[in-house]
Write a structure and sequence with these properties.
The protein is of the alpha+beta class. It contains six helices and ten strands. A five-stranded antiparallel beta sheet has the order 2-1-7-6-5. The longest helix has 18 residues.
Length: 211
């Protein structure tokens, strides 16, 4: 589900190793972009690998803003460090900074939430996502409803710290891990303890609240 959502995301998304400019993976939007001398796009006249290397050195997200390519639209290129198979790597996201960027981000987040809630004989469920006042605040919120059998139901509301595509991706992984855990364990304390251990091994999760 997460790979499909990233593939169809309106932002251009690249996964890069620290020791190679050749992307490990790129989504459909990224494959449409013209490449510079290293095969990757240029923003503000600089190769986006500059932002990647800066993020790997600092250990935090780095952003470059400027025209895409020679005379393209104003674009933000954000690189965030992570690990792939234990090796240094980064996720690079390119998105417009004007126009409908906020709407696109919220649309991407909605695609990671459940498309529908379960239909149960004795309980009617309804859920909705309401966008934040500021577009930049979108990202890590999620909700879910998981039938447990024998008339039991797990209702979940959570929030992964951060915003943008990185937070939405972390949210989707946490939601998937929680649903998987609920198939084996139903006690809330045990479920959250398992999810906490899972989150501790994720390099892109700074903090999460879950009810």
């Amino acid at each position: 589900m997460l790979v499909a959502a990233l593939e169809a995301a309106p932002q251009a998304i690249f996964f890069l190793r620290a020791d190679s400019p050749e992307p490990l993976w790129r989504n459909a939007r990224a494959r449409e972009l013209p490449g510079g001398h290293d095969g990757l796009p240029e923003v503000a006249g600089r190769p986006v690998t500059d932002a990647v290397q800066a993020a790997l050195r600092s250990g935090r997200a780095e952003t470059v803003i400027g025209p895409l390519g020679a005379d393209g639209p104003e674009t933000a290129a954000t690189a965030r460090p992570l690990a792939v198979d234990g090796e240094p790597a980064a996720i690079l996201v390119l998105e417009p900074v004007v126009g409908d960027a906020g709407d696109d981000l919220h649309q991407a987040q909605r695609s990671l939430l459940p498309p529908s809630l379960p239909m149960l004989p004795d309980l009617r469920l309804s859920g909705s996502y309401h966008r934040a006042t500021e577009a930049a605040a979108a990202g890590g919120d999620w909700y879910d409803a998981v039938p447990l059998g024998k008339g039991r139901l797990a209702l979940v509301v959570g929030d992964a710290v951060g915003h943008g595509v990185a937070a939405a991706g972390a949210m989707s992984r946490l939601r998937g891990a929680l649903r998987s855990t609920l198939l084996r364990e139903h006690h809330p304390g045990a479920v959250l303890a398992t999810l906490d251990a899972f989150a501790a091994d994720m390099d892109d999760v700074e903090g999460t609240s879950v009810f």
